[in-house]
Amino acid sequence: MSVIKRRYYVHGWKPNSIYYLTAKELYSRILEDSKSDYDWIASATELVNVCNTPNFPEEYAQGIKICILNCFANLELERNIGSHGEPTDDEAVYFCYNSLIDSNKNVIDAKSRYLKAIINSIIVYFRFGSHIHSFNTYKEISQKWAIEKFDEYFPKEAIDFEKFRKDLYADFDNVVTTAEEEGSFKKEEEQYLENSRRFMSSLMAKLTPEDFFFK
Questions:
Q1: What is the DSSP string of 74-88?
Q2: From CA 205, how far away is CA 9, in angstroms rounded?
Q3: CA distance 198 to 149
Q4: Integer Cα distance of 97 and 73 in angstroms
Q5: What one-character DSSP code corresponds to residue 130?
Q6: CB-based burial label for 42 (10 Å; 0-12, 13-18, 19+)
Q7: What pLDDT was estimated at residue 4?
Q8: How far is CA 61 from CA 27, 51, 92, 184, 185, in A?
Q9: Confidence band for 194, pLDDT divided at 50, 70 and 90
Q10: 3-state helix, strand, coil in the chain (%, to 5)
Q11: pTM, 2 dp
């Protein structure tokens, strides 16, 4: 007698779109969808809800959560690019991270990528605020800080990501502000301004009055 495989309802993006899939079929679909970071069969929130259904096979739940983490690691640095999403998706992704406690390589790699993506996003988007530096010293300070934060948080069993993001930003702001007050960026920035001045002087020296005439 053949065993009837259990199927699960998955609510898709389109109105009234409902899929009725086995755990393996859903996992296979997510693997295919994960070739792109957009237009998945359903939201992260819905997928996590399905994975949390009683008796949903842990093997496939783990695989789906890994795909979600990898996807949102990529999206972390592409916040301005539109894609399907629900207000609760961040919470769902945080759940994926904290519930993946296996020590196999795929889990470790996915959690590592996601944590690094958040840390790097603080550095990237911080540069568009009141502190704007793009020289070697800033890069060295940023990389040193990022490594320290990763080493501090990755060993934790669970992370409060809402607090984590706020704490990261405040800490990085303090690190950059301290470096500014200590004059860490001053030499490179003065050299940059001097090089720019020399370039403009050299350029102007090659021009003749006729170069400014309207023709």
A1: HHTT-TTS-----TT
A2: 73
A3: 40
A4: 11
A5: T
A6: buried
A7: 57
A8: 8, 5, 13, 48, 48
A9: very low
A10: 60, 5, 35
A11: 0.82
Write the single-letter amino acid at 80: N
Distance of CA 78 to the CA centre of its chain: 8
Read off the pLDDT of residues 96-150 as tens digits, 9 standing for 90 and up. 999 999 889 999 999 999 999 999 999 887 755 555 555 677 888 889 999 999 9
Tokens of 33: 């969808």
DSSP string, 103-114: -SHHHHHHHHHH
Tell me the percentage of the chain whose pLDDT exceeds 70: 76
CA dihedral 193, 146, 124, 70 (to 10 degrees): 150
Would you tell me how many other CB atoms lie within 10 Å of the CB of residue 23? 23
Degrees, nearest 5: CA angle 96-59-113: 40
Cα atoms found within 13 Å of the Cα of residue 179, Cβ hemisphere only? 24
Q: What's the pLDDT score for residue 114?
A: 97
**Residues contacting residue 116 through CB under 8 Å, at least 6 positions apart:** 73, 146, 150
Q: Which two tokens stand for residue 143?
A: 């990389």
Taking Cα atoms as reference points, which of 148, 147, 137, 128 lies closest to residue 179? 137
Count the Cβ atoms, other than its own, within 10 Å of residue 162: 11
Is residue 3 pLDDT above 50, yes or no?
A: no
What is the pLDDT, as a whole number, of residue 201?
52
Query: Strands (DSSP E) along 12-86, which ranges?
Result: 18-22
Instruction: Report residue 145 as tokens.
Output: 């800080």
